[in-house]
Amino acid sequence: MNNTNSSWLDRFFKLSQYNTNVKTEIIAGLTTFVTMAYIIVVQPDLMKAAGMDQGAVMVTVLIASGLFSIIMGLYAKRPFAVAPGMGGNAFFAYSIVAAGLATWQQGLGMIFISGVLFLLLTFLGLRETISHIIPKNIKHAIGAAVGLFIIGTGFSNAKLIVQNKTGTLTLGSLHSPTVLLSVIGLVIIIGLMARKLKAAVFIGILITSIIGIPMGITKLPHSFGDLFSLPPNPSSIMFQADIPGALKLAFFPLLFTFFTGEFFSTMGTVLGVGAKANLLDKEGNLPDIKKPFIVDGVATVGGALMGQTTITTYIESASGVEAGGRTGLTAVTTGIVFLLALFITPIILLIPSAATAPALIVIGLSMLATLKNINMDEWEESLPALLTVIAAGLTFSLANGIVFGILSYVVIKVFLGKFRDIHIGLWILCVPLVYYLWLK
Fold first, then answer.
1. What is the DSSP string of 365-424?
2. Measuring CA to CA, which residue among 258, 219, 218, 226 is closest to residue 96?
3. What are the transmembrane regions (predicted)?
4. Is the torsion defined by CA of 69, 121, 14, 78 positive or negative?
């Protein structure tokens, strides 16, 4: 890339201000993509249970993730990639559609309405206000909660932790090729990071994938032609959202669950990944947080029209941050690769989860460092923060962690008679949070 283009990118994304460069941002974007590429396979498989065409779903996953990640990078200028959120998609497919509560068209209508509400609250400044009134220690804990969530995902994908016959968790067997490859990948990535290699995570994933070939885990195609393919026709699911049908009063609890869960998951991811990138101010707030929220809302609305469940900021963006990504150029790179993957999906799918799982484990561990910012000497402040981390990790839901953290903070302050420590906004916020738990 010539100096003119580099200087233009430097000025637009403020690369020098964040002590980064074009090469680092591109590698970071590729790293983010590799760690979240599983959604290309997982989302169509989940939506199949809802009666939607898998090929069409895969195409719109790539289009929506690519388009809105690019918009996030260009408008919000943050290293946050977006894609259909995990958790909400399973709730859509199994708890709503497969359970017979609504059609998938009505479900998409609910998601569209949620996106409109996201945008409305953002433009009114309420999402930004809520992020500001959350106690500072809980904000610090969110970064660690994201880390614990990522660690759990990594261990699960690597089969390093599995459920035994009694329902409890236990270590996976090293006799399993998948577990063995994951351990090898973990050693490789830790070794590369110890040598302070910026692209350690990305290089580690590639090396682990190559090692997986003779182990029979990384599946090579039968012929060169199998590496490239034209995308399927997505018309069967695009613009099928039944918005009027989603306005039934009986659907309100489902709509509220969609909205609340994704609202706090997005907020937690933005603050958690922002903390990892050292983008937060002294109060634990992200400057211009309104912009990522706007993109998130627009993406949810646009995604619903494309036939996708809630499009949200991805926790795996932390992998790009770990690789040195600090600006929107990281998100733009991730988005471009998603769009290119429309034609090279077979190549992308060669990378096994056993190669990306170690990366998630290492990244998650590094994010636990935010716990050092919590004042452990004051139990009334540290307890809600730690509960945020534990609840998020054990329930595999960032939203649950934040809800438990906020409610426990208010309860403790009430019992201590320290009503002045509770912001008026927290009292109001507790009402929908209690209702959210009641619906669970």
1. HHHGGGGGGS-TT-HHHHHHHHHHHHHHHHHT-HHHHHHHHHHHHHHHHHHTT-GGGS-H
2. 258
3. 21-43, 55-75, 82-102, 108-126, 138-162, 174-192, 199-217, 329-351, 386-410, 422-439
4. negative
Q: Which residue has the higher pLDDT, 73 or 203?
A: 73
Burial class (CB in 10 A: 0-12, 13-18, 19+), 17: exposed
Handedness of CA 318, 322, 323, 328 (dihedral sign): positive
Reported pTM: 0.78
Query: Which residue bears the tokens 């990948």?
Result: 185
- Under a CB-based contact definition with an 8 Å cutoff, are residues 78 and 72 in contact? yes
Q: What is the mean pLDDT of residues 318-322?
A: 90
Q: Which pair of structure tokens corresponds to residue 224?
A: 């060169």
Q: Decide if pLDDT at 130 tops 70.
A: yes
Structure tokens at 248: 């039934």
Q: Helix (H) and strand (E) counts for the chain?
A: 18, 4
Closest alpha carbon to 306 in 230, 245, 232, 241: 241
Express each pLDDT in 413-439 by its tens digit: 999 999 988 889 899 889 888 888 887
Most confident of 32-46, 239-253, 295-309: 295-309
Two tokens, residue 263: 């609202």
Instruction: Give backbone dihedrals phi and psi of 84, rounded to 5 degrees, phi first.
Output: -55, 130
Residue 79, judged by CB atoms within 10 A of its CB (0-12, 13-18, 19+), counts as buried
pLDDT number for residue 1: 45
**Residue pair 30/202 in contact by the 8 Å Cβ criterion:** yes
Check: CB of residue 346 under 8 Å from CB of residue 37.
Answer: no
Specify the DSSP class assigned to residue 129. H
Determine the distance from the C-alpha atom of residue 71 to the mean position of all C-alpha atoms in its chain, rounded to a whole number. 16
Tokens found for residue 274: 């922002």
Q: Which residue has the tokens 């995990």?
A: 86
Write down the pLDDT at residue 276.
Answer: 85
